[in-house]
From TrEMBL:
Keywords: ATP-binding, Cytoplasm, Nucleotide-binding, Nucleotidyltransferase, Transferase, tRNA processing. The keyword DNA damage does not apply. PROSITE patterns: YRDC (PS51163). Required for the formation of a threonylcarbamoyl group on adenosine at position 37 (t(6)A37) in tRNAs that read codons beginning with adenine. This is Threonylcarbamoyl-AMP synthase. It comes from Paenibacillus wenxiniae. It catalyses: L-threonine + hydrogencarbonate + ATP = L-threonylcarbamoyladenylate + diphosphate + H2O. The lineage of its organism: Bacteria, Bacillati, Bacillota, Bacilli, Bacillales. It is found in: Cytoplasm.
Amino acid sequence: MQRWSALDPTEKSASLQEAGAVLSSGGIVAFPTETVYGLGADARNTAAVEAVFAAKGRPSDNPLIVHISQQNQLQSLVQRVLPMEQQLMDTFWPGPLTLVMPVIDGALSARVTAGLDTVGVRMPDHPIALALITAAACPLAAPSANRSGRPSPTTAAHVADDLAGRIDGIVDGGSAGVGVESTVIQVQEDGHIIILRPGGITREQLLTVADHVELDPALSDVAAETAPRAPGMKYTHYAPKGNMSIVTGDHLNEVAVFMQEQLVMAQERGERTGVLVFDEDETIYDGSLRLTLGSLSRPEEAASRLYGHLRQFDEAEVTFILAQGCAEQGVGLAVMNRLYKAAGGQFIRV
Ligand code: TXA
Ligand code: MG
């Protein structure tokens, strides 16, 4: 496995040309984006796309997002662009917004779309990602560069932990920015937006462009009786090895007292305990690995730290984790969505 680091993200960078050549000849290479690291492959090459599914251990019914570096690459991928879609791309691209649009038959490997008649496309806001797509000279299918079921990687070290020996290379660009994945949306003919997966572009930001923004009902369906429109949302993603529950309540001190009691009881049962809190909670939580997500008033911090912290609980072999919830505002909606999935839906309201 090759490792390219300390990159100059210009099209002339020799390392990026090399990594791009590996991609255009059918190899699979992990690279940084502004959200999380992706594992890229030429989206037209079925063998390369199959290698991505194999390296990740990903279920084959879960489609991949296609990454482009210029808007004109869309013409050869999607059947049409609605006026609202155009407005969203003009406003938020490059950036963490994926649009699901009707795919042109035969434009991409059918493995990318998992047999659907739509494709999710985005233009990442990261100089290395953009330069790499240009160097590869093809649309890059890229899911997050983690083993399926592990938290998404926000550093090259996370990628190596999960995928060393299974992929052709890693482009190391330091820490990814946002820390949670892109927002996946579908625009309806009438211009209404449905959020299939909350992410880096917030519902509030989308509402500055569109009057109607709804969440896919499957996102709040605890019993999982509604099939999500983003197939990936049905899997227990991001699961730490320990048993995790989210704790919320109207008063932080009550939440803290409850968590402290539960953690002590768990320790008495022989569990290794961990707690994920916000800065506003100053409780010490004796005997537990205590990690903080920053201030409750800045969900961006929580987004950027979340996956790294989940990995840290795994490294410390924590078996029982309690996580404080935050408000579902701004990127807090995506943070709570990922926490909820990491907790396998286990939710306690104090
Ligand atoms: O930020 C991101 O989006 C990262 C970086 C690497 O770009 N990528 C990422 O890809 O998160 P992945 O494969 O881990 O997640 C793709 C999500 C899944 O939930 C999948 O079901 C959904 O997007 N998706 C992809 N194509 C779709 C389609 N045609 N229709 C509905 N959902 C789709
Ligand atoms: Mg993923």
